Known about the structure:
The chain is mostly helical. The chain has two domains: about 5-95, Rna Polymerase Sigma Factor, Chain: A (Orthogonal Bundle); about 100-255, Butyryl-CoA Dehydrogenase, subunit A, domain 3. The protein contains twelve helices and no strands. The protein has helices at about 5-15, 20-40, 50-70, 75-95, 100-120, 125-135, 140-150, 170-175, 185-200, 205-215, 220-225, 230-255. Helix 5 (about 100-120) packs across helix 7. The longest helix is centred in the last third of the chain and has 23 residues, at about 230-255.
Amino acid sequence: xxxxxxxxxxxxxxxxxxxxxxxxxxxxxxxxxxxxxxxxxxxxxxxxxxxxxxxxxxxxxxxxxxxxxxxxxxxxxxxxxxxxxxxxxxxxxxxxxxxxxxxxxxxxxxxxxxxxxxxxxxxxxxxxxxxxxxxxxxxxxxxxxxxxxxxxxxxxxxxxxxxxxxxxxxxxxxxxxxxxxxxxxxxxxxxxxxxxxxxxxxxxxxxxxxxxxxxxxxxxxxxxxxxxxxxxxxxxxxxxxxxxxxxxxxxxxxxxxxx
Length: 259
């Protein structure tokens, strides 16, 4: 994600005058950011789409980010833009009806089951417990998680913005747990603390996948080489971890009781 031009000067000019030519220069300067996001999406594309299509969708998010970014807010443009680029890609895929409704529904069912079980057990449930709770055998549950990997793209979308649109990212939590104590807003701090607790409840390999993906910023292919497992298995582990973390965040925002 190396940007070769003096973007600080461009942002100053754009903030003052909102010139179209400066806007276009900023978009061009940050175009590599779109490829960075596309390369890190944990999805397999159908034959009718390729990476260039996703880059085109991501440019829409980049344009929106450039137009809305306020450099005076004190955080990096990349931090602000990445969730919007990813969101634009996901929104377009959903508009094309590529992400299967059945997979989305199954992911929601698993997430809800994890949330309810975690409330009942007081800890993160195991795969066996989740499968039993959902009346599935273990093989079917694993298949459902694998299918959910096509729709469980990232936790960043869940954490993207707080009430004043300041970005929240899982990488911030994985990277520096002490940062939790530096947050000024109570709910934001509590959200991050809840997420840290949920991460600590994950199996060791799931935690490693999360750290490598969000902190070390490796792609799924790179993680597969590090762990010496298939890329599809990495996607499955990522999806399983994200479903559990999203369930923990859902419980934080909307606590549920047991059935």
